[in-house]
């Protein structure tokens, strides 16, 4: 596959030395304390030792679900502890998402999560991006997909009670996408990326109503 953008990093993994690695916490996430040095742009020599804390967690996957026949898309809403200091509300609009379990790949994870979080059976999963949400603090990798589903009966409250999930399903018209993109309640990174992808690749390609 041809790289259409003329860029590659100056350095790679061989230009980093991990001098010490200590595990500080082990739970739902793992936290490590690292001592590292790496080569510098100015002279290509190794710089001084730097200290970093790294949150380690399993790969995650998320999916924007839409219904081309009804011209609708599905989002979920749930409480997020990480948004306690959010300007608007700690309840966040999101796409369906979850962590990939052992023995799963991203697609099988999302099919499971769609049933658990929205009672929705998804089809035609297409990879949009595979990216790092926050490399300054975490090694998490996020797999972002778009998929189709029959949303004619979508709605309600779902989630795994034993995991403390309380998830409300929202269904929006394609025509509401532009307004949603301007909403102050649109503050979740994976949702913003997914909607921008959707707006560019799918919504703009829909035939216009007369």
Can you walk through the features of this model?
The protein is α+β, with helices and mostly antiparallel strands and 210 residues long. It has helices at 106-118, 177-181, 189-201, and strands at 16-26, 30-38, 50-56, 60-67, 72-79, 91-94, 96-99, 123-131, 142-148, 157-158, 167-173.
Summarize the structure.
By secondary structure, the protein is of the alpha+beta class. The chain has helices at 106-118, 177-181, 189-201; strands at 16-26, 30-38, 50-56, 60-67, 72-79, 91-94, 96-99, 123-131, 142-148, 157-158, 167-173.
Indicate the mean pLDDT. Answer: 93
Shape: globular
User: Span from first to last CA?
Assistant: 41 Å
H/E element order: EEEEEEEHEEEEHH
Q: Total number of β-strand segments? A: 11
Which spans have pLDDT < 50 for at least 5 consecutive residues?
none
Oligomeric form: single chain
Strand coverage percent:
35-45%
Using only C-alpha atoms, the radius of gyration works out to 20 Å
**Tally of individual helices:** 3
Structural class: alpha+beta
